[in-house]
Amino acid sequence: QVQLVESGGGLVQPGGSLRLACAASGSIFNSAVMGWYRQAPGKQRELVTSITPFGIINYGKFVKGRFTVSRDNAKNTVYLQMNSLRPEDTAVYYCNLVDPLGRPTAPWGQGTQVTVST
Length: 118
Hints:
Elements: E1 4-7, E2 10-12, E3 18-24, E4 34-39, E5 46-51, E6 57-59, E7 67-72, E8 77-82, E9 91-97, E10 112-116
């Protein structure tokens, strides 16, 4: 069973940057589409971005060029570089394996809290 461990969250001022990381256990990582999701207080979890094993990327419309996803298959790790952060980006960020419909397929990790505030 895949285990996912997210890290890198924190408190940042508007306009700041953070880099999240997600380490995945298991050999399935290299063949899996990986995604970052987020869940803000009182809202449903939403897909932020996904990246295929060969680097094909999709972003949610709200990203608007501010976020960059990448992966290191040798380290079983996917990253999310977030720039120009806004208060509305405040959420718990999770990674997961993604099916063709954008749905998560593995048990959720603990997530990492991102808070954008003055």
